[in-house]
Amino acid sequence: MVKVKICGLKRKEDIEYVNLTKPDYAGFVFAGVKRKIDFKTAEYLRSLLDDKIQAVGVFVDEPIENIAALCKADTIDLIQLHGGEDENYIDKLRQKTGAKIIKAVKVELTIDGGQLNSQTVNFKRLAQSKADFILFDSGAGSGKTFDWNLIKGYDKPFFLAGGLNKDNIEKAVKTLNPYCVDLSGGVETNGLKDFDKISEIIKITRNLQ
């Protein structure tokens, strides 16, 4: 069964939406600008979140002590890294937290152009990562898909992100069989989470089982 992560939750309403629709993961973003929240807001939102939904903290080169504090406070359950965090960082983070770690990898060749960095999909290197999961993305918040053929040879469970929405989610799942699909902009209207769009994604993915 493919799992679903709804990322970039910022408001009480967003938590109400996911509590009703029951994705597997809810993402709190602690980096960037558009969907960034502070630790206090995350603590409040987590207190409202259904216990059956796991909270994922999204970071970019965050000091390990800050992430460990969020884990210790039970604000987040999983850690998602989008910066230049290396294997040494991941190892130290695991020792500090014991939490599962998702490492984002940017696949730079997009459907509408761009250049492919061959290191992006070096499966041998990725297979040796100390992260629990790799997340393949076209770039945080880009809203674009990448050429899914580039990761067809990856045979470990992975998260898939980048431009996913109601129009392409079924094809993505059937083509790649990801462990989890990760959506943010694809379930928003005018920059805010949309209950109907979240509901539709959950309905589509659950019907694929």
Give an account of the 3D structure.
The protein contains seven helices and ten strands. The protein is globular. It has about 210 residues and is an alpha/beta fold. Helix 1 runs parallel beside helix 7 and helix 3 (about 65-70) packs parallel to helix 4 (about 85-95). It has a single domain (about 5-205), classed as Aldolase class I (TIM Barrel, Alpha-Beta Barrel), CATH 3.20.20. The strands form two sheets. It has an eight-stranded parallel barrel with strand order 1-2-3-4-5-6-7-8. It has a two-stranded antiparallel sheet with strand order 9-10.
How do the strands and helices of this protein lay out in sequence?
Elements: E1 3-7, H1 12-21, E2 25-29, H2 39-48, E3 54-59, H3 64-72, E4 78-81, H4 87-97, E5 100-106, H5 123-127, E6 133-137, E7 158-160, H6 169-176, E8 180-183, E9 188-189, E10 192-193, H7 195-207
Parallel strand pairs: 1-2, 1-8, 2-3, 3-4, 4-5, 5-6, 6-7, 7-8
Antiparallel strand pairs: 9-10
Helix pairs in contact: 1-7, 3-4
